[in-house]
Amino acid sequence: MSDTYTPPDVWTWETESGGKFASTNRPIAGATHDKELPVGKHPFQLYSLATPNGVKVTVMFEELLAAGHHAEYDAWRIDIGEGDQFGSGFVEINPNSKIPALMDRSGDTPLRVFESGSILMHLAEKFDAFLPQSGPERTETLNWLFWQMGSAPYLGGGFGHFYAYAPEKWQYPIDRFAMETKRQLDVLDRQLAERPYIAGNAYSIADMAIWPWYGQLVLGRLYDAATFLDVTSYTHVMAWAEKIDARAAVQRGRMVNRSFGEPHMQLHERHDASDFDTRTQDKIAPSS
Ligand SMILES: N[C@@H](CCC(=O)N[C@@H](CS)C(=O)NCC(=O)O)C(=O)O
């Protein structure tokens, strides 16, 4: 990394920084173009993409449905590579222009919910599921939910960015964020050595928040970094990740709003439970 850069007195936005996603990065908030969002027939309208933050919420919906709750939802795909998150309709729901964003239309007045942790809490409280109503178990679940919200940016925006997406490999940031990512994995490993799920004996929104990042990391699905980070040494995280991965609702949740990977795993939009059988990309756009 060059050691000759001297920051100017005032930073100005002059050039693209390079690297993946550079073309959509901007130093200003707000909409770049007018675009209304579609609205489907169900009480919950989700606007998202199958990144780890998006998967948290689609897993929650599929878990709620699997548990018998009336949590039917329409899931619309927001292509963040194309800048859909800067459309006027999306920005009205999430002024931070990031997926996932939810419109809860189940009440008299539509309610916007953004930030994946806020969405998980909102749904958990609405359906009284995957989050104890009170007591130490509730506090512990929220401890880990908020741990994830604060920690994952070091994994994604820090380690993932410099290891996989930056235009060049620079040792300083990779070392810094690999160290922090491994420390976080060790935090989880020690926690999971003592209990089956993150917050105790019950599967909860804390697992749903943490698994898409740290579970998928140790399963080798994030940044192709499993060997580099020696993930198999975190044996309790590995066992927990595999256990969660085997859940049918998790397998369905991973497919929703997904537009990469194997065609049979991609369900671009989800409007009905039957879509998993009939509307995956291998079925609606079979390669010839
Ligand atoms: N703290 C937010 C983070 C959401 C987030 O970073 N979403 C990313 C995809 S994983 C995104 O929409 N990026 C688009 C952009 O930065 O323009 C949450 O948990 O909901």
UniProtKB/TrEMBL annotation:
Domain GST C-terminal residues, every copy: 134-267
Basic and acidic residues biased stretches: 267-282
Pfam families: GST_C_2, GST_N
Domain GST N-terminal: 41-131
Superkingdom, natural source: Bacteria
Region (Disordered): 267-288
NCBIfam families: PRK11752.1
Name by which UniProt lists this protein: GST-like protein
Source organism of this protein record: Roseovarius lutimaris
Taxonomic lineage: Bacteria, Pseudomonadati, Pseudomonadota, Alphaproteobacteria, Rhodobacterales
